[in-house]
Specification:
By secondary structure, this protein is an alpha/beta fold. It has one domain: Response regulator (Rossmann fold, 3-Layer(aba) Sandwich). Helix content is 34%, strand content 15%. Helix 1 links the parallel strand 1 and strand 2. Helix 1 crosses helix 4 and helix 2 packs across helix 4. The longest helix is centred in the last third of the chain and has 23 residues. The radius of gyration is 14 Å and the shape is globular. The protein starts with a strand and ends in a 7-residue tail after the last strand. 38% of the residues are buried.
């Protein structure tokens, strides 16, 4: 099973989703779930308010860097989750779901916590669904999309 979390900048919602997915994968011992995270136009850094809000839960995103993701990488996924800011046209074998989440960039700490908690709940529900499916033999790694945009 290969899942991807995609946002335009890969600097907020998709980063939080990825961190919660890594946690769920570990807690549920779902070694066959590979996680991809990327953006269509990555920012230079994860939004500071997102780093701070995740740190409140003991999750450190300060060392993460937004990455680009290609259509080919996403089409190799079983499920692609967009955050409400990406419109993707992928092949029919890829299950694309839009979570339509508000952007935390520049929001108050309270609003970022609300968005974070919505993401945590959705990731938990996704992993409830995944845990009901037979897992495929995939390495227990998080693969962050390589940054393929020109410098």
């Amino acid at each position: 099973m290969r899942i991807a979390f995609v946002c335009v900048q890969n600097a907020g919602r998709s980063q939080m989703s990825t961190a919660f997915a890594e946690q769920e994968r570990s807690e549920r011992s779902l070694d066959g779930v590979e996680i991809v995270s990327g953006g269509t136009d990555p920012a230079d850094e994860v939004h500071p308010e997102v780093v701070e809000t995740m740190q409140q839960l003991g999750i450190d995103l300060s060392d993460r860097t937004p990455q680009a993701v290609s259509t080919e990488e996403l089409e190799a996924c079983d499920i692609v989750l967009t955050m409400g800011c990406s419109t993707l046209s992928l092949d029919a074998d890829t299950d694309v779901r839009d979570w339509a989440l508000p952007d935390p960039d520049g929001e108050s700490p309270e609003r970022v916590r609300e968005i974070r908690d919505q993401i945590r709940e959705r990731v938990c529900e996704l992993f409830d669904e995944i845990s009901q499916q037979p897992t495929r033999s995939v390495s227990n790694t998080t693969r962050v999309a390589s940054n393929s945009r020109p410098e």
